[in-house]
Amino acid sequence: MPVAFGTAYECLFTAGNLAQGQTVLIHAGAGGVGMAAIQLAKRAGATVISTASSDEKLERLTALGLDHGINYATGSFVERTSQLTGSRGADIVIDSIGGQNLVDSVGVLAYRGTLVAQQHAARRLPRRRDPAGVRPDPSNDRRHARARRKR
Predict the structure, then answer these.
(1) Which residues, 6+ apart, have CB-to-CB distance to 24 below 8 Å?
(2) According to the model, what pLDDT value does residue 134 have?
(3) pLDDT score, position 34
(4) Do 51 and 70 touch, CB atoms closer than 8 A?
C-alpha cells in the first residue's frame, strides 16, 4: 500500500472520524495524499469536494470519485464550498497547504466540523486577523521577552 493511502486514512478516519453521508473538502486533490483521500472518502460514502489548480486536474479526479471540484486559481474555495453545501459547510476539511489556506479553511467547516492539518506546503504565513482592530503589543510576544532577558 502506498504511503499516501496511510496518511489519507489517518486524516479521514483516525483524526477526522469520517462517516457515511458526511461532506469532506480535500485540499490539493491532485497530490498523492489528495488522490488517496478522494478514493477512500468516496468508498466510505462521503460527498467529496476537492481543490486543485486547474480544471484539467479536477476533471481527472472525477474518475477517482470526486463529486465537486473547485479550481482555486479562478475562484474562492470558501464561497464555492458554501454554495455546494447550502451554506452548511464541510464536516471534515483535510488541509495539506497550511498558511492562509488553513486559516480560510476554518470558515468552510460545518458546525462541529473537523479540520485536519497535515504537512504545510504554503510558503507564506497567514495574515493576522485582529477582530478587535487593535495591533498586538510586541512586549507580550515571547520572542521579544526572551530578547529583553538576554540584555
Answers:
(1) 12, 16, 18, 37, 41, 46, 47, 48, 49, 90, 91, 92, 93, 94
(2) 52
(3) 97
(4) yes
CB 68 within 8 A of CB 48: yes
Q: What is the dihedral of CA 36, 37, 43, 45, to 10 degrees?
A: -170
Q: Name the β-bridge partners of 117.
A: 95
How many folded domains does the chain comprise?
1
11 DSSP assignment: I
Look at residue 110 and tell me whether its pLDDT is greater than 50.
yes
CATH number of the domain that 66 lies in? 3.40.50.720
C-alpha cell at 130: 485582529
Question: Residue 72's domain spans which residues?
Answer: 3-123
Cell of 70: 473547485
pLDDT at residue 148, as a whole number: 47
Band of the pLDDT at 132, cuts 50, 70, 90? low
Q: Is residue 96 part of a domain?
A: yes
Between the alpha carbon of residue 18 and those of residues 37, 98, 119, the distances in Å are 11, 21, 20
